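User: Please work through this fold.
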Amino acid sequence: MTTIRSCSPADISKLNLCNLDPLTENYARKFYFDYLAKWPTMFIVAENQKGQIVAYVMGKVEEDPDYLKILGDKYLPWHGHVTALTVAPQYRQMGLAKQLTAQLDRACEQENAWFMDLFVRVSNKTAISMYKKMGYVIVPHPNHSGLVCPTGPNSSCSYSVYRRVVSYYSDDPTGKGTSEDAFDMRKSLPRDKHRRYVRENGENHRINPEDLYHG
């Protein structure tokens, strides 16, 4: 049995089982402690019966300063961000990622965030497929009613990739180059009932990393 719970300071030293994944970003210990101190309800772990941390998600809520609204769609309103999500290899296909992100979504909803977003390597097809299953996949077409857009071969829905960040990652695990692009994927939360902060064909909307952070 696996338990989903908030992260504790003692858990920081037990993340290795998850962080051995080559596609998982590793950070200095101070980074994890800073997140835990600032956003304690948004650092969530999955613990097995042996007391091992077998999955975790780190998130936060943030926004750009009001004076940057003149930047248009580059301005970031109040939103939740998935900083890291990883599951130990032997614990995949068990629904842990979905449980963790669902709890993070609820925490961000309580903070009245407009949407959730995350960055993923364009080559990481496994992660992209997983995020699509968790709601980072389609946005309602104006001709559809309700908040959930029907899927299928005749659907007019589109992926919720909001933009492609060129050379976001400073390495390329495929060996084809010295850097790799990222997809900025978004999922609207209940506050964004009119889907203001998602777009169609975002894969074709390219920006540079320096356009992401303004504050």
In short: Residues 96-110 form the longest helix (15 residues). The chain has four helices and eight strands. Strands lie at 3-6, 43-47, 53-62, 79-87, 115-121, 161-169, 180-188, 206-207.
